[in-house]
Every structure is written in C-alpha cells, then in structure tokens.
Amino acid sequence: MRPMPTAMVGGSFDPIHRGHLHLLHTVATRTAYRRLILVPVGRNNFKPDAQPAPAQHRLAMIRLALDHYRTLYPMDRGLELVVDECELNRTGISYTYDTVKDLYRLYPIEGRLAVVMGDDLLPDLGRWHNFDTLKKLVTFVVIRREEHGQRFFDESAELIYLDNALMEDSSTKIRDGLQQVASGQALPDDLASLMSPEVVTYIEREQLYRH
DSSP string covering 5-74, please? Predict the structure, then answer.
C-alpha cells in the first residue's frame, strides 16, 4: 500500500444509499484525495442511544454499494475505496480523535488526513473530543447539506468547503419507509431507487428494518 492523499468518511451507513455514493464522488472529483476510507460508527458520541442495524449487515451493504460505485462512476479511476472496522471493534463510544490516530497508524497517508463531514455538524465541531489536538492532525472537508451552508470560525483549524449539489436521500427516510413494508413484500420503486440494487436485494433477503 503506497502513500496517498487520504480522507476518512464516517457515518452509521444504516443503510448506505446513493446519497453516500454521490458524496464519495464529490470528494473524488473536487479534491485531491485518492483514498477514501469509510468508517462505520460503533457508538456515536452525539447519539449514544441510537441502535443501528447489526455491524455485519451494515458492512455487507457498504461493500455491495462500493462495488456498485464503480458502475455508477467509472470515470473515477485511481480511486481507492476502503472500509475500516476500527470503530466497530472498539468498545465504548467512538471518538473521531481515536479513529484518526488509528488511521494514521494503519495507512500510509500523504499529507494530512482529511475528515469529511456535513455542514450540519459544524455547530458542534468545537465540542468534539480532544478537538484542540484533533484540529492539528486533520483537514476538515465540509459537504453542504443545508440550503444556506454554515461556517466554522477557528483560524487554527483547516477547513475545505465543497459547494456540492444537495441530496435528499437519507438513511432515516429509508428506515422509516421500510417499516411500512410488510414482511416478505418487495420494496416499492420510490424507496428502492434510493439505494444500489445490490443493497435492495440484501435488505429484502435479510428482511432488515421491518417491524
């Protein structure tokens, strides 16, 4: 594995959807980062009571979606897509600071590691665990999720703002929709279209997110 400009993309991926893939494509085409590491969260510091789908299912869906990424965006050559399980293997709450240290140890990273985040998280950024040390280790790549994007004001932190198209796909919308689908029933087209076909097949086979 050779040194590459590397970005970390964290999230619950519960489930991963086309909006996530478009986010990866945005980073791939608008920045110099050529290795994107997806890190599914174990326990989220800001959502400690959240109960995501079991890790093995989320990992399986991520890998299926990344295979489909190559079909959706064949022009993104030279892009290395990696799934790292460090937060799933870590006990207790997952802090970005600890994950960043793990990724620096595990991967040959050219320059600073980037942390990809939505602008909806900016109001709490200064409250992230060990933020004063974290901001010296990484560059924050900010994806626009709101119509009027926010800004974070700390001259000692390095932030890159991407003016990407807004995507309405959300894992919450998909989970809520799936709870209305009876067991054994196929997903309606409007719901299935939000995800890669392989992920839809997996969800139907495993009967995920049903009552």
Answer: -EEEEEE--TT--HHHHHHHHHHHHHSS--EEEEEE-SSBTTBTT--PSPHHHHHHHHHHHHHHHHHH-T
Per-residue model confidence as pLDDT tens digits over 84-138: 999 999 877 889 999 999 999 999 999 999 999 999 999 999 999 999 999 999 9
Domains identified in the chain and CATH numbers: 6-206 (3.40.50.620)
Structure-token pair, residue 157: 């932190």
Which distant-in-sequence residues (6+ apart) come within 8 Å of 172 by Cβ?
Answer: none
Contacts of 40 (CB under 8 A, 6+ apart): 10, 11, 12, 13, 55, 58, 59, 62, 83, 85, 87, 88
What's the pTM value of the predicted model, to 2 decimals?
A: 0.92
- Distance of alpha carbon 41 from alpha carbon 39, whole angstroms: 6
Both tokens of 96, joined, read 């970005």
